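The aim of this short unit is practical: by the end, you should be able to scan a pair of folded records and say something sensible about each. We start with the first protein, listed as its amino acid sequence and then its structure tokens.
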Amino acid sequence: MNQQLSGKWESFINQINVHCINYLSFIADILHNKLNAKTVQLEKINDLISKITTLIAEI
């Protein structure tokens, strides 16, 4: 996969799938336990995704 930073947004967002989110959640849990950092709850992430999707649709 080759990603261009000047590419269209769809070329970025289309690469993010359920597996990516699961891996990122897993890594966040590891960092939380290792670094005692806070993780973002899945509900907040889904809410942010919904808001961003709405904003993109308005553009």
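Turning to the second protein, read its sequence before its tokens, just as you did above.
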Amino acid sequence: MLKRSLMKESSQKEAIIAETNDKLQDLRAEKSVLVEQLEQRLEESSLKRDKQELGRCLQEAREELHNRREVLNASSDLLNCSLSPNTTPENLDSSVVEKQLREKEHENAELRKELQKQNAILLELSESVACFVEKHSIEPDPLAPSMLSSISMIRSSFSVCCSSSMVFS
């Protein structure tokens, strides 16, 4: 008898365990479905927010473009009003060419100044070399042209260059 009651009690408990396991599986399945639905809702919500933000950005860009067009039209109107009736495309072209010419002249003047500086540096260097050669009594190579005569030629050429470039500026 005790054995039967224990068997009966054991089978009841096994039935409860099986039922609990079934409920647990059902709850896990339901949980998976709910998690999936929640993720989908979150994604939709995020997409809606992104769509709204993109819409706002697009509207702001359109307003900015519209404002720029208004400024451009106003500038164009001002330009048209400020031009005298005697202004022609040819006059404007010659003004542009004159401005470019002035810029090139300014650039040339700067280049001449730079050339004068470089020539002065080279002249100073050649004088230093000549002074060094004379001070240390370096004998020139008989097969090579005289270093001192080369330096004196450099001096004279720089003197001519410097004086002629000063004439141009």
